[in-house]
Amino acid sequence: MVIRAVNKIRLFGELVMFSHTLFSLPFAIISLVWASNGWPTLDVVIWSLIALVAARNGANAFNRVADLKFDALNPRTAERHMPKKQLLTKEVVVFVIINYALFVFAAAMLNPLCFALSPVAIALITAYSYTKRFTWLCHLFLGFTIASAPIGAWFAVTGHFAFTPFVLGTIVMLWIAGFDIIYATQDIEFDRKNGLWSVPSIFGFEDALFIARGLHLIMVMLLVSLYWIRDLGWIYLIGIGIATVLLLTEHRIIKPSNRHLMKVASYKLNQVISMVILFCTLLDFIVFK
Hints:
By secondary structure, this protein is mainly alpha-helical. The chain has a single domain, classed as Tetracycline Repressor, domain 2. 76% of the residues lie in helices and 0% in strands. It has helices at residues 2-15, 25-36, 42-66, 68-73, 89-110, 112-127, 138-146, 148-158, 164-184, 188-193, 199-203, 205-229, 234-252, 259-288. The model has no long low-confidence stretch (mean pLDDT 93).
């Protein structure tokens, strides 16, 4: 029984790609620290992390349910848990409901603004799963939903709107959209054949990569702008410099026929990028504040 339960937890962790929390979590932590102008209280940190993880898990699991038909047809995704029936649809739906409920509860424990916005957040992160059916802007919509992490973290601390979290959110949106476009170059023919929309399927491989580079260029420019907006130090700039080199590397190694390289370009390098930005930003904060 215990072994079965542990195995089921492992399968759900793989289903929602739990390790990919590293995309949004570092920016949420930065937002928490900046909003607090110091170190946030323990209860805010705990409930913010619970809200972030629950929302992300629920959204990713729902995406797997919504895309089950396409995952089963696509050779690249046919070995995923649901097409192979390692996890049943009803199990995943229950998992989604539990995580969304946990998200709303965590938001309520933070402050009235977070609680009031929680249904809006759920609607947005759920709607993403259907955007590939009708628009090539699906990548930006994905980035927009993940951008709620730093914005929501700011709200969790302050309970009101501000300029900085929306800059952070825009950075996350452009960054996510850029590497999601890169990842989608693997499915150009499949998407065209099955009526799915994406930047690569609509504009072609080369133009898609050009758009991804443009999004990441604007992202870097916004990261640099925070140096002046937040009156940051040189350690922060070093972090942005390293992140920029890693982004350039990401764009140089793209090769859709090599699945390993695509995972490195779309996922592994970006996990390192977010951690580098987090480390240098926090170190900068400790040294200069």
